[in-house]
Amino acid sequence: MGNSVFSVGSDYFLLDEQPFTIAAAALHYFRVPKEYWRDRLLKMRACGFNTVITSIPWNIHEPREGAFCFSDDANVEDFLDLAQELGLYAIVCPGPFIGCDWEFGGFPWWLLRYDDIELRCMNERFIGFVDKYFDELIPRIAPHQLSAGGNIILVQVENEYGSYGDDSAYMKHIADALTSRGINMPLITSDGIEDHNLVCGAVEGVLRTAKFGANPSVNLPYLREFQTEGPLFVSEFWNGWFDTWGYQHYQRDPKDAARSLQRIMADDASIATYMFCGGTNFGFMNGAMADGEFKPVVNSYDCDGLLTEAGDLTKKFELFKSTIANHIRQGEEVQMDPQVPKARYGEIPMSHCADLFENLENIAGPVEMLKPVPMEKLGQGYGYILYRTHLNGPRDYMPLYINDLHDRGYIYVGNDLYAVQSRNDEPAKVYLKVPEEGLDLSILVENMGHASFGCELKDYKGITDSVQLGSTFVYNWTAYPIELSDLSVINFKPDSDMYFFDHPTFYKAQFILDETPADTFVKLPDFTHGMIFINGRPLSRYWNKGPQRSAYLPAPFLIQGVNEIVVFELEGVRNGKHNPIVFFDNKPDLT
């Protein structure tokens, strides 16, 4: 592999001057525990793919400004080395914007701390941060190019830029930023199959590629109109789709997907199927669609792929394997385990609980402010933020306006839940009457994921504008940033004191695994909406509105011995049940 030469020919990709069809499949190292990279990549090879394509999320590698991370699950170099060891070429998409339905499209949240920043354009502040990030990232990627003995054959410039902007100087800067730091393999762009996408996302001298899921007989000729010579490459063939909360689980007929794949490959086009194994948006890392209706992505990124979220083969696997084999000569049969072991650990009753409000001072320090400000301005990227104030009275019934609430707000009068307001709700849904002695008003806001696509990308969280009672602005607030990065500060009460709370409540239980842990799925039949933590790390959101009704818990997140689960419930356990249970099952539920 390392002695080969790869190039872009007039009609085909060329490997050692011979026509080469890229049969790529998308796998995101940051959505799969490192312990399972080999399993997923082996299955990719066994399916007949010759190339892995992965994006590189900035927010994983620079979670805090100037603090870089390339270790453990973020070790992209180890991922590339493993892919090469297993005989796979690689295509990398270093961004800086990756999209991928990932939190903030891969941007680090701390970019939003700067008032003068504009994203994805030649804004001086933004470009300065991009260049510093590329100074760290690209020297780590360049040695893995085929030209240097590695396996990278293509590098993508940004992602779907034609769906966002038309700053051609910005796209040229990103391309130059790659080549000036040592990238010498061919560059590509990747855009939707519309004229404004393919025009605005283009860079002179860089191969245009397209993304779509159907109608190749129409879309490939359309791509050829813009890319008049060179190989045709569907750099994202959508064999499935992601899920958003409150909508039906997406499923595509496997035979229909395989037919589209067959038509693309029959036209001698290269292909990158999206996704091979979608993996998981662990913790707070799900993105959101924010053009028009706000639609947060669920934590499962199953994507109806060739493998399930947990790495098991689906019906599409064999159909795609057969289709690829009809067009690409296969080597030796690759040995793999079709399924990763799963365990059904059963029911665990919660044994302790804690009221968020009683623990507020332990969890978050108060910040005084004249009017509410978004969490990013307070140095917070994820989680929740509580705003509190006192309203003087008397005042007659008036509408409460929470202007630009991002994303879901729980309104408390005194200690009682008064109403729930969503970003998608019409304003003035809530009316308040203030007695003569006044009242205490609290608004707990949940960040449900920064936008990952579209023009609403600059997506601050919390109360991002102001609060009004009628026509009067409400001033003088105290905010509590609730990141939940350290659960040890929470004062849990034993089960003898457990009762149904009308407040956000933490529930805790311990469970012992006597044997080596296996993958399992967390189900919460007694809970409504909130976040699951396993051994101190955020695992997944949950919401009884579905479609995700289980949370994938990989074995590497567990230990042999004592494990701890904490559930942060925002809306109250169902029917006020005492001692709610957690169920560990061996099957997922994405209905």
Q: Looking at the structure, what is the overall shape?
A: globular
Mean pLDDT: 96
Helix content: 10-25%
Beta-strand residue fraction: 25-35%
Poorly predicted tracts of residues:
none
The major β-sheet equals: 8 strands, parallel, barrel
Strand order of the largest sheet: 4-5-6-7-8-9-10-11
Radius of gyration computed on alpha carbons: 25 Å
Number of strands: 34
Q: What is the SS-derived class?
A: alpha+beta
Name the descriptors.
591 residues, alpha+beta, eight-stranded parallel β-barrel, six-stranded antiparallel beta sheet, 10 helices, 17% helix
In summary, what is this structure?
The protein has 591 residues and is of the alpha+beta class. It has ten helices and 34 strands. The strands form seven sheets. Strands 4-5-6-7-8-9-10-11 form an eight-stranded parallel beta barrel, surrounded by four helices. It has a six-stranded antiparallel sheet with strand order 27-15-28-33-30-31, with no helix packed on it. The protein has a six-stranded antiparallel sheet with strand order 16-26-17-22-19-20.
What report would you give on this structure?
The chain starts with 5 loop residues before the first strand and ends in a 6-residue tail after the last strand. It is built from ten helices and 34 strands. By secondary structure, the protein is an alpha+beta fold.
